[in-house]
Amino acid sequence: MEPPFDFAHLDPSCDPPELYQAAFELLTAIWSELRAFRSVCEEDPFLTALTAYLERQFVAAGVVLAVQLENLARR
C-alpha cells in the first residue's frame, strides 16, 4: 500500500522546500516499515492495535505537513 501522503512533481519550481521533502521522505520510510511490521504481527492484538494507532498518527502528520505546504505556496 502506498503511503497516504505524497506530493506530485508537476512543476519542479513548485516543489516543497528541501526540509519538507525530507519530512515527507521520513514519513514514507516509517510508513513502509510500520506496514511491514504490521503484517508480521497480525496475530498479536496489542501490536495490531498499536500499529493501527501509529498509522493514523502518521496520516495525521502527513495531512498537517501538506496543509503547511499549501500555506507556504500561497505566500
Characterize the structure shown.
With about 80 residues, the chain is mainly alpha-helical. The protein has one domain (about 15-75). Helices cover about 70% and strands about 0% of the residues. The protein has helices at about 20-40, 45-75. The longest helix has 30 residues, at about 45-75. It is elongated, with a radius of gyration of 15 Å. The N and C termini lie far apart (about 35 Å). The mean pLDDT is about 80.
Question: How do you describe this structure in short?
Answer:
The chain has 75 residues and is mainly alpha-helical.
Strand content: under 5%
Number of separate helices: 2
Query: What level of helicity do the residues show?
Result: over 70%
Distance between the amino and carboxyl termini: 33 Å
Number of domains: 1
Uncertain segments: none
Using brief descriptors, characterize the structure shown:
75 residues, mainly alpha, 2 helices
